[in-house]
Amino acid sequence: MDNEKLLTDFNDPEAIPGVICKVANVSPLEITDADLRKINKYTLNPVSADDVFIFKATIADNEQDDRNYMPFNLKALQDLKKLYPGKTMLKDHRRTADNQIARIYDTELVQDGNKQTELGELHTELVAKIYMIKTDSNKDLISEIVGGIKKEVSTSTVPEKMICNICGVDNMKDYCRHYPGWEYDVADSAGKSAKRRCKMLLHGAREAYELSFVAVPAQPRAGTHKSVGFAKPIGEPKNDSTNGENGAKCTENGVKNAETTSFSELDERVLNARFKNAESFFNANKN
What we know:
Strand order of the largest sheet: 1-2-5-4-3-9-6
Structural class: alpha+beta
Strand content: 25-35%
Oligomer: single chain
Largest sheet: 7 strands, mixed, barrel
Distance between the termini: 28 Å
Number of strands: 12
């Protein structure tokens, strides 16, 4: 998947509407008594160290140099830390009972006291600890994890807010006219115009659905490849309009002179898009 596709493909057919999928890496762990106590909270009968294989995944961080221009903030990581324990792990996001291969039994936040993000937050990583019951059917999968073949993990989450840094609109409640990765002219309080690249800040989290092993291309760093499972109701520009005289003009408080879509057309398209997203969401949860 090339960079251009990552910037423009907001309608991933494999994603649930409103769900953010993000890739991270995994590594094996040595099991401790503390791990076993936490794992046994989720088992019907107590298991021993010989029964289980455990590994960890660095799921997400709050760096703002996100490849898809949809970074998490610290609030999102704190919420996900609480939401992920007990959630299942799948392969390729195929949500069937037979496709469950593991379960998250613990999470932790790891902070770097010497590094700050663009938002002024301490750099933080969300780490999940995951267990599998050893069986004849999954011994090859365990070998592939240990051998570094299976190492990409995609997380499915729903953000509390998705805030546009151009106009401040929460795109979980309403759609703005800006697209992550596109540049827009933004005027400051003195009226001076400058280019700003659009980001959608993922503030907080409402739900964490599952983790999945996925096959993805190489990434610049762990936790930077995501897809959004909803389509904006406003058609994206066919080319970078900010390089011409038709570029969107914005103020720091919002859109001043945006694209040519009328507000009556926008209202109808927003309503239709929301109906479709709601229908897709409920259908997905029935399956």
